[in-house]
Amino acid sequence: MSVISRMYRRYAYRRTLNTLRCLPSRTRIDCDIEGHEREIANRVATGF
């Protein structure tokens, strides 16, 4: 994996995690993502 690819994935992970954490708690609970933000951000950033 190239350095640029790793940097992009790290950026995508942080951006996604921040977006998920900025959602209101009620929305996170309704979407069943409360407490799973890191796992979801990792899946988004890595494509798995």
Topology:
Elements lengths: L2 H20 L2 H6 L6 H10 L2
Helix pairs in contact: 1-3
Fold and architecture overview:
By secondary structure, the protein is mainly alpha-helical. It has 3 helices and no strands. Helix 1 runs antiparallel to helix 3. The chain is elongated and about 40 Å long. The model has no long low-confidence stretch (mean pLDDT 92).
Write a compact overview of the structure shown:
With 48 residues, the chain is mostly helical. The protein has three helices and no strands.
List key phrases describing it.
48 residues; mainly alpha; 75% helix
Which structural class should the secondary elements be placed in? mainly alpha
Shape, please?
elongated
- Topology pattern, helix = H, strand = E: HHH
Rg over CA atoms: 12 Å
Could you tell me the number of beta strands? 0
Distance between the termini: 16 Å
Task: Estimate what percentage of residues fall within beta strands.
Answer: under 5%
Largest sheet: none
| Uncertain parts | none
Instruction: Give the integer mean of the pLDDT values.
Output: 92
Please, how many helices? 3
Count of domain modules:
1
Helical content class: over 70%
